[in-house]
Amino acid sequence: MEFTLPKKERLNKKDFRGIKWTRHRETDHFILLLHENEIGIKRIGVSIRKAAGGAVVRNKMRRLAKEFFRLNKHLFKDGYNHLIRIKMLPPKLTWEGTKTELQSLLNGNIH
Fold it and tell me: Would residue 1 count as lying in a domain?
């Protein structure tokens, strides 16, 4: 398994704006939206509102979500674009807390 995040696996703004997304699952802090793509690979995009916090914490949350994708690609569906929408920031921005909640988001074990 390859633990990289190449450019072809990342969604740009133009790739996820104006698309009809399907809400797949939701947790306290995250929403997973899916859209089937034509290229047959799994791709990731992360979106977060400005009201969620300052730029530093928003970017840290974005990095944590992309890192989770990079290390756990096997949990994501092949041939789909995945958009992780961050509703609000968790109380503590830690790798363990983020990883646990994102795993429950993908496995369907929603608390």
Answer: no
Q: What is the CATH number of the domain that holds 82?
A: 3.30.230.10
What pTM was computed for the model?
0.88
Number of domain units in the chain: 1
Q: Which mean pLDDT values do the consecutive 10-residue runs of the chain (111 residues) have?
A: 84 83 92 92 93 92 94 92 92 88 81 44
Could you tell me if 111 and 72 are in contact, meaning their C-beta atoms sit under 8 angstroms apart? no
Domain residues for the domain of 29 are 7-107
Residue 10 DSSP one-character state: B
Length of the chain: 111
Would you state the structure tokens that stand for residue 39, as one six-digit string? Answer: 């290229």
Q: Which candidate, 68, 72, 81, 70, places its Cα nearest to that of 37?
A: 81
